[in-house]
Design goal:
single chain; alpha+beta; Jelly Rolls; 2 domains; five-stranded antiparallel sheet; 9 helices
Amino acid sequence: MSVWSGAIAVRPGLLVYTGAVGTTGRHAHHSVQILIARRGEFVLGDAAGGRLGCRAAVVPPDVPHEVLDGVADALMVHLDPESAQGRELASRPAPHDAVAGWERAGATLGPAEDMLGLLPARREIEVRHPAVARTLRRLPGRLEGPPIRLADLAREVNLSESRLSHLFREEVGLPIRPYVQWLRLQRAAELVMSGASVTEAAHGAGFADGAHLSRICKRMFGITPSEFVPAPD
């Protein structure tokens, strides 16, 4: 398996990697993965033994795949499958579990720079409902505290759990629970990139321990927290 080298940025619902894409063994992760080569082609393989050279590809969540040949410069994006953009992109590949479908879905994408322009902005999320705005302001300060519960959040903003859940997903684009998990991953990535150990980052982001953080990272992205490196603006 060859080494990848590049820069990673994490924010709610989204991980963006730019740089060299190396080879991998067969694996699956829960995010929707987009790969776009800036030059040349990479080669993807599926669980049935199919392999195909691709300029771009969309790999649905939880589908086994491998990178058989990498490229020196690429954009890789992981999107939460529960986000509106993630659900839409995950629906494009047909067949769902074959490299030919991933490549056809990739052909509907533009160049890497165009794709970057379509991703959720790095700026603060703009919402209309004041209860959602108050909830968003409260969440970052609670990552290191006790478990964040929907019932507590709803009570604090004087809404029912179902109403807050509906409004949050509608305005933010993610349900509350995965949004909180992405906040934790973002905080952990920031801590690792500033020099913290994986254990220190896990505790600082509200994970039980380093093993818990590593498990979530591997499940979502197929990488470990120690592979996070600073991303240029």
